[in-house]
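---------- Forwarded message ----------

FYI, see the PepSY domain-containing protein record below. Original note from H. follows.
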Amino acid sequence: MNTNTTNTTDTTNTAGKPAKAAKAAKAPGIRQTMSDLHTWVGLLLGWFLYAMFLTGTVSYFRNEITQWMQPEQPHQSQASEPALVAQRIGDAMAHVAPQSPQWLINLPDARSTVATVFWSPPQTEKGARRRFENGRFDPATGTRLEGPVRETRGGEFFYRFHFQFHYMPVLWGRYLAGLCAMFMLVAIVSGVITHKKIFADFFTFRWGKGQRSWLDAHNALSVLGLPFHLMITYTGLVTLALMYMPWASLATTMTPEQRVVAGQQLSAFVPAGKPSGQAAPLAPLADMVRQAEQRWGAGQVERLNVNLPGDANARVTAIRGENGRVSISPQFMMFDGVSGQLLQAQDSVGAAAETRGVLYALHMGRFGDLPTRWLYFIVSLAGTAMVGTGLVLWNVKRRSKLPDPERPHFGFRLVERLNIATIAGLSIGMAGMLWANRLLPVEMAQRAEWEVHTMFIAWGATLFWALGRPAKRAWIELLWAGAAALALLPVLNALTTDRGLLASLRAGDWVFAGMDLMLLALAALHAHLALRTQRHQPKAKPVRAARPAPKAAATAAAATAVAATAAAAAAETSA
């Protein structure tokens, strides 16, 4: 009887082990696989993606940022007729650079208050690389603005950094940006597959729940702009597709004439021809601009390329702008520079080039009006927060699994500090560039480069600060530092220029007023995040009674059975 009891216990334990082993050996499902892919793809390049998203977000207002960073530029309350502006600039250029073989005239618009002209001086050496000089012109009078204007990269730097980074060769930066975009696309698709209830979870948010709250925020931000995130990532890859996959264009054999036609599918730039050597007056530019506006609409001429001005072979190309168009495919009209006769017009391109133009325009968002650009800005800012919450979630999720959460291992600490320096530090770095714009001397040599250096010095300093401080204290201190740096910028602007917030509001200068107000709003956001981090108290997990291990339980049961058998045998012997 006692022997049967022992055998039953052993059989039960033996039968349970294969079942557990089979369960442990079961292959992970598709969602678990996608979850692992989403986690590691998002982490490995998440810091680059966060920087790309944030700088790309502010680039939707790069013209306005550049204006704010050049307060010496005059504020134009009323726009002049483009045809008259073109004529004034052309007349002025006849005195500024009469021997130049090429003028590139950028006409002002609602986002740029002055006309900018680039021209190439006559080449003194055959085969020498062509260089360009530039100048600013008052659209109301056509006179060249000679006053000192601070040298700056302005919003153009954030735009370029967004897809080619800095301190590395341009091609390397663009290839790295393409790799990040591809990883982002993989992260989006794998994230959708992983969260089967992602749309239901969009309406669920639990405050103060630690990891659950971070996951809810990450899901909500992901679903909020999911179509936008997919579009912006895919179109970002398409914009540089010819660089990533150049083999088709390299394999084709085209004549020089065919290459010119193919180039006009992607760009409206027309190279200067050969001069005839015969002097001839330039036809009125105003008439050409008006003729182009009759074809495209008022205010649609963005640029004039004047080749060989003053020569009998002069050519003038009017190029249509990208505003109000859902495609950036080039449209232009080429005129005879002497007679003003229309020689060539391009209003459409091939299907492949038009598809690229539409995808490119969707990514840049230049087709939209001010409300559309604000929509792009807000949804893109949500994408930035999506990447940021994903990085933080990685730390929050794994901290609870550490043997000693108060003393994490080196790899965990490194990721945590990189997250702090990237998310909280980048704001300080970008604000530092704006501070340098106001504090560096206007006529300082290499001033624009030192503005950029200041940004990276400030950003790097946040990493050293994060490495030397406890994680929570580093978050709080850097968020407060970012809030202070952003909030004091309007004060600094008012002290160093005559275009402070109140003065700009009175003058109706909404570029400067809007920039100052946005800086204050971002400062308030950083202060809010700092306060929430400061007040957050993680809840201690309840201590559960330790359960005996399965092997120990089986051993105890076997020992009990053996003891019972021995006791029974002893009883029989005694009897």
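H. also flagged this: The beta strands are 102-106, 115-120, 133-137, 301-307, 315-320, 332-336, 342-346.
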